[in-house]
Amino acid sequence: MSAMQPMPGLSTRDTYYLVIPGDAEFTTPYLQYMPGRDVAYGAGGVFAALLLATLATAALARARVFAVAVLASACLMVSMFLRGSLARDTGRVRMYEASLVLATCGASSLLLTAALLLARWVRLLEGAQSPFAQLVAVCGGLVALGVAVLECIGVPLVFGSDAWLRHVGHQLRVGAMAATLGYSGLGLLVAVWKAATNAPHITAEAVALAGPFGLLSAWASFALAQAELPPTSVASTSEAAFYLLGVLPLGLVLLLWVALNAPRLFSHGKDLPLAHRAAGRWSGHYDSHYRYPSLPPDHDYSYPVRVAGPVPADRGLARQPTAEDKVQQAMRRYA
Questions:
Q1: Helix axes 248-259, 67-86, angle to 10 degrees
Q2: Per-domain residue ranges for the chain?
Q3: Collapsing DSSP states into helix, strand and coil, what is residue 158?
Q4: What stretches pass through the bilayer (predicted)?
Q5: Taking the domain 25-267, which CATH number applies?
């Protein structure tokens, strides 16, 4: 199949093709080699294990925010399985489109989870009504939703037959990756800043936030390089680079959260004082009776205060001393 010619005014750098070694040639963007079936299925199995681990830790901690991370694991698992199936039948272009969309949606879901955790951490440090925490959460949600929408629109356009629509789809994907990179970089800076200004009691939370934001920045950088560089670059021709920079960072994000038990680590009660929250779930500085993050320590309960009632008028009248009283007074006098 011959390569399509771009419209006047569009550079050929905006059009990419899938060239599989052999007699077949497809006008499919970005992928320049036959994907390894066994490696893709193995990566899908790893994401399936991470899916179960994330689901278990989130269920034990009753952390509903990690439902988004569970969804991300499922998207990445299905994306890898579709990539492995593509090796069997390279004519399934729609399958390759779905794998690209699911991979990006999984990354945006991880970005949303990290943004919600960062907002919860900032709210813990600055107060429940912190405007900065609300800004972090709202911006993270908008960026994650925008990335998913742009990817769902851009990928089908890139695989279309019209050169101008292919160019538009390519620009939408570049914009989505740039937004992911920008927010991940800002999230990394905020996590490091909060860790530096609130050390040394929050190192576990800082690692659980700075690590994922850094890994998501690496993933977005590779996705941008894959979209912007020529199809002969390493980003488009090396399967090892794809798994090291396009798959491994996302898996490490999930693995880091599972290893640190992030659902329990970020299960802070909004009514706990800072002294009982900032120490982290792994420091062991909690009260011996403290069991659940949603309950305050024992000494913070609001016990009822006894109010003194009216004193009877005859309460202070002296009674006549008895013989026993006289004996006790004599014993105290000569003791």
A1: 150
A2: 25-267
A3: helix
A4: 39-58, 65-86, 98-119, 131-159, 171-193, 205-225, 240-260
A5: 1.20.1070
